[in-house]
């Protein structure tokens, strides 16, 4: 009852923490709701299936589950026959997907899913898609298409496939997307079998069918049904989901950090301003543990109320975030917002947990308040720093420095995350050590005004020197706001300069043939550009535990298979028959050395024993696992070629539809711009979140501080201070605090940004300097300054009016 009474009586003192929890939980809830809504769903083309039989899953070089190893034709035949005999199964359909894209008026028809739009006719039964007109394809030059394509039955249609443009006769149309060829043609395009769909009789028992299918397949394969069928997703949808998850994960992490940081600092500030009240409780007999329980209980109530309001706000904001993701093209098609219980429960638990943890930290200090402090100023204990704060601050500072150094040496994929974590750590260190800087900086900045005859600089200086810990609590959210704004905008500016310059340097003097409206280059494009690098990528499986010397048949034992990217090269240095060239890192992870033999299983389900011809230093331009191009083409007929790099002394051709030519500078800029829009949008969203949240915290902190100093204002007014003078003192002190916080916020970002620039210099082999966005920095500083000044003035004016009344 005491806790609830305190919250009711002191609601204005808890308002800042309540708002901070509300905003933090709203942000976290919104991101979790969108994350849950973006989960993989069963694709329409599988809605007519009861279950899917899938081959064994392999792991990547780090041991994480990844691709499934397709069955070979010989392996799949008995499985299909056995599954087809299960009672209740109408048909066991071999599902094949490969590249197919219509060419109209000399240009590829826009199709995001073109890489997997080609299928065998039997796959149409899985949806099921029905014939609207015509008949099923029977010859290898016949195709059935989506009626939305507008191709009439009997007309000729040019379709781009892996080999290049081919003429097909449209023999039918269906009421669903895709290009459906004869089963014989589909088997040539994709010999391996990645899934077998079970189409059941009406009213069949799915559970019994799944059980029987598992017996047919054995232990090394899987049968998925219901929502488990969502495992099979088109590559472009998976890519969008990956980008979207990356974006909202960054938002959630930043929101969580900012919530913890802001709520904790505000609760410490609020508790520190109640020392006289706590001292009075101790005077009337309250034990330290009782004081601690009261403070934690109050925070739990405030956290619960803020979490409830935050969950409501988060659910209401979820459609807005969904629309933003769709605008950035990183949301799965047709994504709908669905609200499950777990995002709300998680958000509430975080809100209450953060409040309790923050109060526990403040309560430990409050429990040490002696009864005599009921007679002292609440701010009398705000001087200096304790031993624990010194130790924690220096330890966190050391960790931040190590992370900043790690930013320079980390890989390209981890460099941004490392810089963000380094900045987070340094922000915490700056907040812990801020009292050390407050006094000296206050003396330095107010020194020029000491001889002006005005009392305001003297009062401001005395306040900062006498109460550095209170000022440090006000500085903390400013450090976070400015720090994140400078870091994120600085990363974007640095990468904007580094990546195009580095990429252009790598391909200088070459002409690059790139896909234009297609997912890759066909063999027709490669034939038109016979000179230059034309890497043919595929996913293959290294069978480390399989017996070598099995020829081109499958190795049989697929235990311990590792999936990785394999490049087929036409460079004579790397394309020696029967050999593979490995990078040092890949060779080490696979446990291979020069001269060893290793079975490699390809997309068609067969395995080839290769000899490790060389282990060379890692080179992204060469590839980590390189084999002859003809070997990849023989075992993966559906693979498309990457960008083709034609030397300056050879002529590049863009005569084949769906291709474009770029020089080094154009290619580098186009390659960077592909991801630049998303990167800049992500950075801007994170800046808005960090700065916006911190501005709210700054305003609340300044309002709380102004409210807590009402006795000071009363004394200064009784001593002859005018309202104008007191407001100027408030503005001056607030501005000084913002300046200190902004300076620390900039300083904590410089080491991570410098480390990032150093890493980019090494990665791009170019001179990359540290670049800052002055516009973003100015906006962040002015935004926090205006918010703080307005909040302080509003509360100070209200306090002075009440005192006058």
From TrEMBL:
<dbReference type="InterPro" id="IPR050250">
    <property type="entry name" value="Macrolide_Exporter_MacB"/>
</dbReference>
<dbReference type="GO" id="GO:0022857">
    <property type="term" value="F:transmembrane transporter activity"/>
</dbReference>
<protein>
    <submittedName>
        <fullName>Macrolide ABC transporter permease</fullName>
    </submittedName>
</protein>
<dbReference type="Pfam" id="PF02687">
    <property type="entry name" value="FtsX"/>
</dbReference>
<dbReference type="InterPro" id="IPR003838">
    <property type="entry name" value="ABC3_permease_C"/>
</dbReference>
<feature type="transmembrane region" description="Helical">
    <location>
        <begin position="390"/>
        <end position="412"/>
    </location>
</feature>
<feature type="transmembrane region" description="Helical">
    <location>
        <begin position="294"/>
        <end position="321"/>
    </location>
</feature>
<feature type="domain" description="ABC3 transporter permease C-terminal">
    <location>
        <begin position="250"/>
        <end position="368"/>
    </location>
</feature>
<feature type="transmembrane region" description="Helical">
    <location>
        <begin position="471"/>
        <end position="492"/>
    </location>
</feature>
<comment type="similarity">
    <text>Belongs to the ABC-4 integral membrane protein family.</text>
</comment>
<feature type="domain" description="ABC3 transporter permease C-terminal">
    <location>
        <begin position="685"/>
        <end position="803"/>
    </location>
</feature>
<feature type="transmembrane region" description="Helical">
    <location>
        <begin position="341"/>
        <end position="362"/>
    </location>
</feature>
<feature type="transmembrane region" description="Helical">
    <location>
        <begin position="682"/>
        <end position="705"/>
    </location>
</feature>
<keyword id="KW-0812">Transmembrane</keyword>
<feature type="transmembrane region" description="Helical">
    <location>
        <begin position="12"/>
        <end position="35"/>
    </location>
</feature>
<keyword id="KW-1133">Transmembrane helix</keyword>
<feature type="transmembrane region" description="Helical">
    <location>
        <begin position="770"/>
        <end position="795"/>
    </location>
</feature>
<dbReference type="GO" id="GO:0005886">
    <property type="term" value="C:plasma membrane"/>
</dbReference>
<feature type="transmembrane region" description="Helical">
    <location>
        <begin position="726"/>
        <end position="750"/>
    </location>
</feature>
<feature type="transmembrane region" description="Helical">
    <location>
        <begin position="418"/>
        <end position="441"/>
    </location>
</feature>
<keyword id="KW-1003">Cell membrane</keyword>
<feature type="transmembrane region" description="Helical">
    <location>
        <begin position="247"/>
        <end position="273"/>
    </location>
</feature>
<keyword id="KW-0472">Membrane</keyword>
